Amino acid sequence: MHHRVKAGALQLTTFIATVIFIIIWCLFLLVKLQAELANKTDLLYAQINLLDSAFSIPQLSSGILNDPTEHRLDDSSIRAERSIEDAYWGGYGLRKVSVTREGKKLKKAALLGGELSDNNSTALSLDENSAVLHLLGDSFIDGDVNTSEAGVRPGIIAGYHFTGKELLSGTVNTMGGFPELEASWLSYIQKLQTMSLPPFEKALSWVPQQETINSFNSSPLVFMSYKAIYLRNETLKGNLIIYSKESISVDASCILEDIILVAPRIHIKSYFKGTLQAIASKSILIDDHTSLNYPSSLIVNSPLPTESDEDSFISMGLNTSLNGMLVYYNPRDFFNHLAQVRIDESSLIRGELFCNQNTELGGVVHGAVYTKQFVLNRSGSVYINYLDNARISKRALDFKLAGIAFEQRKQSKAKWLY
What average pLDDT does the segment 126-132 reach? Predict the structure, then answer.
């Protein structure tokens, strides 16, 4: 009996020792696993940081920039290869970045636009040869003004005069200068309009689409037609270009997100809501009660003469809103007093407006306006450089937005893509 107790005690001791060993071994494996996971997590974070840092590069490159084996992740000896591909997407830059580490690739894409700095308080820039700017009604400029030596004054037309308390909150500068659009971006717009970009080589004939979604990590899908395109009850999202040789009309029943529309004439119908890049060679007409979300752009680039000057314009109707940018560019000099950009009363632009010709502004701009001069139509007469109940506020601008591609302007992120 005495020997049996000793044997049982020995077995119990062995069992306890085995259990303790297993526990210690499990703890050792757990600590080792946690260390490995922590190291992998640190490397993943470093890889993500390297990926994100590419979007802080202030200028667009001319294509694909590869910088292999130049990036060491944290303090480790592991290196990563980063590829940056820059292009344009409508009014914005498009940057695609990939980082590869030990066969593991991360990818990200974003739209970029001109950096809007809160250090720049310029709300309005006019041509250096423009006439005196007259304000009528409740017009107000919240920010600095770049204009000619003629300056800014209260106006009066047939007894109707300026009713506000002050004309502007900033200063009037006569040496501010008129910004120039980025030459490479203008070249891209012209190639887009003439189907001279590589994606058009694989263009598909347009047929109505119930739903088409294409990631920006894929090649762009291009649909084209030699006839007018009327979009109705369609969902189109992502890396898509819709091209018509004649015109494009968009009904309020459509769901559009981030796509590009290209045609001589583009018409957005009343009550449409969405995000798009509209690029025309003649005209863009935005009907009443339309809302274009950020980052949208309305661009008319008219390098060739139209049938008449009245055919070349961008027009925003009543109670419309644009969050993004509006650009009208025509290298020809107009010697008439027609408005190439017309913004109706109660309409709002959050972003920037550029027109190197005549602008008729009746609404509100939270951002900045760059135009050759203003025109105002009243009772059959046209008044040069008059604003009536228009408001421009640089201080009301959300500086997280990205703006127009001007020469020498740094780029900032406008939107992460999918």
Answer: 88
Distance CA 193, CA 198 (A): 13
**What is the predicted pLDDT for the residue at 36?**
67
Model's pTM, two decimal places?
A: 0.88
Whether the link from the prior residue into 331 is cis, omega within 30° of 0, is no
Tens digits of per-residue pLDDT, 49-70?
Answer: 888 888 988 887 765 555 543 5
Predicted confidence at residue 412, as pLDDT, reads 93
Determine the pLDDT at residue 188.
96
Residue with tokens 């001589």: 264
| Cβ–Cβ under 8 Å, residues 140 and 168 | yes
- Which of 215, 209, 213, 244 has its CA nearest to residue 228? 244
Q: Which residue has the higher pLDDT, 60 or 181?
A: 181
d(CA 390, CA 64): 44
| Helices and strands per DSSP (H, E), number in the chain | 2, 32
Q: What residue type is 76 in one-letter code?
A: S
For the residues 104-129, what does the mean pLDDT come to?
A: 90
Give me the residues paired with residue 198 across strands.
none
Long-range contacts of 6-14 (CB under 8 A, 24+ apart): none
Cis peptide before 264 (omega within 30 of 0): no
What are 387's strand-pairing partners?
135
* Distance between CA atoms of residues 140 and 390, nearest Å: 7
**Cα(146)–Cα(123) distance, integer angstroms:** 8
